[in-house]
Design brief:
alpha/beta; six-stranded mixed β-sheet; 21 strands; disordered C terminus
Length: 510
């Protein structure tokens, strides 16, 4: 954590008594917050606490109903991004069909008709890449980038504008541990150069590492604002949720050696990313998959699920005959379920209702002769939304209007409704708050306790160590280490992920 300066310079941007309502719902209430040059100010709180609304008001993209936003030039009420302010939003905003270079330089103040001359654009792009410390291919289209590289593209776009104030909403949610560390180092460097930074994050460890000041929101109100080192992480959690969370990870249930193997993959190879991956999961077992972004974890999951072409290798599920995954439909029928890492692009239909999304993978269970039985849908929705603690006005609410944590719980319920033998969860807590994480962890542990197998893919080491019975580490598309018991340590996981030398006995399959 950075040391506080002796004197406080004038604020680069200040929210004074800001409130915002949507209909009868107040999402932000009399909020005060000041951003100072050379300091990182973090805002934390549960999903729905008002963090993103506060950030969008600071940016100028949402107008407050009461209060004002003050800058060195006085109070401002214009619509659109404020001069000298850059935003890295939680929702990726790059233009998919444009190149990386075109996205970075699009709409810069010095551009004409929205773009720069090629030579000038290249210089701006190279300067931004040097500042951020990434090397994205300038001529690749944004839609062809990985999710992590799309996040770096957002950062490049913001830094290229040379802002006085930088606002970031969950910027590390799509990054692995290495990428997150690099981004936090960048924020420290930018603040040392005099930039004022506002960081919205669910990760309390990174907040305490990089932030000078922290503001805690709960139910739209500021419940605490001050130096970041004044409270412990446990105290910050209690401020956020209004109660103490006894433990983030439930106690692990022991899986006996005699437990039957319900899933086995042998020699899975896709010819591109995944190379000769083998994996076994016992009944009631949670197996964690660790590795850096691009290590092949998600691609292996897609192969096993039939969503990615398999060139060689076989899968056995529930004792059935071994065969190569042929299609998503066939693996679903065999008892496999996949919670994808991109819930909005691959898991949910945001414009439809909660209950429509819930039954999407189980239409056969709620239909007769091609017609959906509405009473059956209503009953299932009531039972599963209660079991997963989804907070919504009704099951008919549009799922796109829910917080990220509640959307994720609906997505998990959608697949648990099928009662699968094996549940693959790819980054199931990405972009959700602490309370939602606890709820999701309990759902995964409960699924294992009911006799299902669980494969957990996560970029959060604490999550893997806290939930998994075994951890398999991926690097360059293959499994390079298997860790169990006392060998499951952050150091050994990261050493294997980076290829820094895996100890004898850590490698191979049991």
């Amino acid at each position: 954590m950075k040391l506080s300066t002796a004197t406080s310079p004038p604020d680069s941007l200040r929210l004074a008594g800001v409130s915002k309502r949507y209909g009868s719902t107040t999402v932000l209430r009399d909020a005060n917050l000041g951003l100072q040059p050379g300091r990182v100010h973090a805002v934390i709180g549960e999903n729905g606490a008002g963090k993103s609304t506060l950030l969008m008001i600071a940016a100028g993209l949402i107008q407050p109903d009461e209060g004002e936003v003050q800058t060195p030039g006085g109070s401002t009420h214009q619509r659109g991004l404020r001069p000298g302010v850059a935003l890295v939003s939680q929702e990726l905003s790059s233009v998919p069909g444009m190149t990386v270079l075109e996205n970075v330089t699009l709409g810069l103040p010095e551009s004409r008709l929205g773009s720069l001359r090629r030579g000038s654009a290249r210089r701006v792009f190279e300067t931004a890449c040097s500042t951020v410390g990434v090397n994205l291919p300038a001529d690749r289209r944004a839609r062809d980038l990985s999710l992590a590289d799309q996040q770096w593209l957002e950062v490049l776009r913001a830094v290229a504008r040379r802002p006085r104030v930088l606002l970031l909403d969950e910027p590390t949610a799509a990054l692995d541990a290495d990428g997150s560390a690099r981004l936090l180092a960048l924020l420290r460097s930018l603040s040392d150069q005099g930039m004022a930074i506002l960081l919205v994050s669910h990760f309390l460890g990174e907040v305490r590492e990089v932030a000078d000041d922290v503001t805690v929101l709960r139910d739209g109100s500021v419940v605490r604002s001050g130096p970041a080192g004044s409270e412990t992480e446990d105290e910050l959690v209690q401020l956020m949720v209004g109660r103490s969370l006894s433990t983030l990870y439930p106690e692990k249930a022991e899986v006996p050696e005699s437990a039957p193997v319900i899933f086995e993959a042998n020699g899975i190879h896709d010819g591109l990313v995944v190379h000769d991956v083998s994996l076994r999961v016992r009944r009631g077992e949670i197996v964690g998959l660790a590795g850096l972004v691009g290590s092949g974890r998600s691609e292996f999951a897609q192969c096993a699920f039939g969503a990615r072409r398999v060139r060689s290798g076989q899968v056995t599920l529930g004792g059935a005959s071994a065969r190569a995954p042929r299609s998503v439909r066939s693996t679903m029928r065999a008892g496999l379920a996949l919670i994808p890492e991109d819930r909005k692009g691959q898991g949910l239909v945001l414009g439809r209702s909660i209950q429509e999304n819930l039954i999407l993978a189980s239409l056969g269970r709620v239909s007769s002769f091609g017609f959906v039985r509405r009473r059956r849908v209503t009953d299932l929705a009531s039972r599963w939304l209660g079991a997963t603690d989804v907070r919504a006005r009704s099951a008919l609410s549009r799922i796109g209007d829910l917080s990220g944590g509640n959307q994720q719980k609906v997505l998990i319920a959608k697949w648990l409704l099928r009662e699968p033998l094996l549940l693959i969860a790819d980054e199931p807590t990405r972009g959700v708050d602490v309370a939602a994480k606890v709820a999701i962890h309990r759902l995964l542990v409960q699924a294992a306790a009911e006799g299902r197998g669980v494969v957990l893919i996560s970029s959060e080491l604490d999550e893997l160590l806290g939930l998994a019975h075994r951890i398999l580490v991926f690097r360059q598309g293959t499994v390079v280490a298997e860790l169990t018991g006392s060998a499951m340590t952050p150091g050994r996981v990261m050493s294997a992920a980076f290829g820094a030398g895996t100890r004898a006995g850590d490698e191979g399959m049991s």
